[in-house]
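for the writeup, i need someone to sanity check this before i put it in the appendix. the sequnce is what the collaborator sent (i think, or maybe the updated version? ugh). structure was predicted straight from it, no edits. if anything looks off just tell me and ill rerun, i have time this weekend
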Amino acid sequence: MKLKYVCLAAAAAWAGSVGVALAGDAAAGEEIFTHKCKVCHQIGEGAKNFVGPELNGLIGRKTGSVADYNYSDANKDSGITWDEAKLKTYLANPKAVIPGTKMIFAGLPKETDQDNLVAYLAQFGADGKKK
């Protein structure tokens, strides 16, 4: 009987550690943002719309909703509210998630890059401050 509880406790501890590992590395995500996203997007305090919309408070935000940014109709009408899972899918292949988007980004094929970038973006509230 004791062995059963020890095995259950070990399994629970392992599952918890896997969840933390899958959360993504925000520092690695910042590197990805700097090299792949910053050419079009800004994030953080003082961020403004650029080639693409500013990305503050992205998680929980509806697509096509940043003031003073000229979105494609496809983006405005997608009905998507960004959560981490949907954002990862979008980052893998933007045109598959929102056909007709004007975002000209081929995507991030590596799931670890997606996890890391989402971890970085999720740090920022709508005011541009890190949570």
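The first helix runs from residue 2 to 22. The chain has one domain: 24-122.
thx in advance!!
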